[in-house]
Amino acid sequence: MERSDSDHRSRTLERRLSGGAESPRSSSSDSVPGDHSCDFEPALEFDDTELVHVVEGDMDLDNDKEAINPDSDLLESPMSEGLMEDNFEEILGTDPFRPDDLDEDEEENEDNRPEDEEADFSDIAQYGIIEIAGDDSYGRKVIVISACKLPSNKAFNHARFLRYLMHTLDQFVEADYTLVYFHYGLNSKNKLPLSWLWEAYKAFGRKYKKNLKALYLVHPTNFIRFVWKLFKPVISAKFGKKVMYVNYLHELKQHLHFDQLAIPKPVLEHDKKLLAATKNSKMTSSTSFHTNMPTFETQQFRVPISYIKEHNKGDVIPRVMRECIAYLDNDNALETEGIFRRSANTKIVQEVQSLFDEGKPVCFDDYGDIHVPAVILKTFLRELEEPILTFELYDEIMNFQELTSIEKLPVAKSLILHRLPEDNYEVMRYLFDFLAKVIDRSDLNKMTASNLAIVFGPNLLWAQDKQASLFSITKINHFTDFLLRHSDLIFTK
Cβ–Cβ contacts within 10 Å for residue 161, how many? Predict the structure, then answer.
C-alpha cells in the first residue's frame, strides 16, 4: 500500500510539472515526462513576488529560522508543513513551456552516450557555477553551486548544464560529500525551469543521494520553500533530513572551512545587507569556527606543525598522525573498501578531536568504526594553520600540470626535497609511506592513487588569500596524484 501511495504521488508530481493529465501509457513512478510538446513551465518569477501573497498566509516567514541542532547527528529537516495550498496548477498557472535546448539528442540515455563526447565542458565550466571547496569539518568533499553565476537563459543550454553537473559530481559521489547552494542571484532572466529541476532529480540516482550527507541552502527565499513543497511527495524523509536552510553565511562556519568556500562577491554583499537589516553584525563579527590561539599545550588541531613539535618532546610527527596511521596500518583497515572516502559520526569526530587536543588517550576500538581515524587524519591535515605543502609553493604547484612529462619528476623532487621545510618533509614522507600501503591494496579497497589524490589533495594545499575553485582543486589533485605514483623516487634524499 505504501509503495502504491508513493507511485501515485510521483505520477501526480510529473503531471503537475508537465501541466497535463497522467499519461495513460505508463503507471510507473520511474517514468519521466519525455514528450516536451506537452511540458509546461509555470509562469513563475524567481524574485518570489508571485509567491509572497500565497505563502505569507500559510507560514510565518519571520519565525521560520531553522537552526542546526547540535544534539543530533543528522541535520534536522527545515521544511515546514502547510507551506502552500495543494492546488499548484491554480497558483502557478499553466503557461506552456518547451525549452529550446531539450531536443531529442539531449534526451538520450546518459549510459549510451560516448564518454569522449562529454570530455570538454569548457563552454559551461567558464561560468564558474560549480566549484569544489576542499573538505568540510567532517572530512567530506564540499561542492558549491552559485545561482548568481547562471547566465541568461537565452544563451544557456540547460540540458548540457545538467550533464556537466553530473560529470562534475561523478568525480566525488563515490565518497561522502556535501553540497552548498547559494540561492541569491536567481531571477527571471537566468532561472532554471521547474521541468529541469524534475529532470535533474530523476537523473541523480541512488549513489548521488546516498552519499550526499548534507545539503545547505543558503539565503533561502519563498521560492525554495515552494519547490520543496512541490517535490516533497517524491522525496524521502531520510533525504529531507540532509537538507538545511542557512539564513546567514556565518552559520556555515561550524560545519565548513569558511575561508575556503568559493563565495561569490554578490552573495557576500547580500549577506552583509541581511545582517545589517537584522542588526546581527555585531553578534556574528566575532563568531568564527577556527581560533589562532591554542587552548592546550597538547593541542593538535588548528595549530602549526612547529607548535606541535615544540610541545611533543621534539617529535615532528604529530601524535594524532601517529595514532591514526598506527590504527589503520593493518589488513582489516587497508582492505576496507572506500577507506578515506566515507565520513564518520560527527559527534564522535568532535569528541576524538577534543581528546587529542586535551592530551587524553584515544581508543579507536571504543567507536567500532574504521572510518573515524581515517576522517581524523584528513581533518588534522586540513585544519593545520598552514597547509603541509606551504603557501609558498602554491603558485608553483598550480603550474605543475602544464609541465612536460620529462620536467615533472625533477620539479616535484625539487619542491619536496629542497623547498619544503624539513619538518613538513618528514610529515609528508610519513603520510605517503602509509598511503603507498593503501595503494598496494587498491584491488580490495578501491583506493587508487587518483582516488587518494582526490581525497587528500585539498587537505595538503590551499591558497592563503584565495577561495578554492574547481580549477585550483584539479591542479592540486594532479600534483598529489603524481607524488603518490612516484613517492618511492620523490621521497628519497
Answer: 22
Indicate the Cα dihedral angle 432, 434, 438, 439, nearest 10°: 40
Label residues 325-362 b or e (16+ Cβ within 10 Å = b). bebbeeeebbebebbbbbbbbbebbeebbebbbeeeeb
Model's pTM, two decimal places? 0.57
How is residue 414 annotated by DSSP? I
What DSSP assignment string belongs to 153-198? GGG--HHHHHHHHHHHHTTTTTS-EEEEEE-TT--TTTPPPHHHHH
pLDDT in tens, 144-202: 999 999 998 888 888 888 888 888 888 877 788 889 999 999 888 888 887 888 888 78
Handedness of CA 323, 326, 332, 333 (dihedral sign): positive
CB-side neighbour CA atoms (13 Å) of 272: 7
Residues, the chain: 493
Among 161, 242, 221, 151, CA closest to 191: 151
83-to-79, 230, 472 alpha-carbon distances in Å: 8, 10, 41
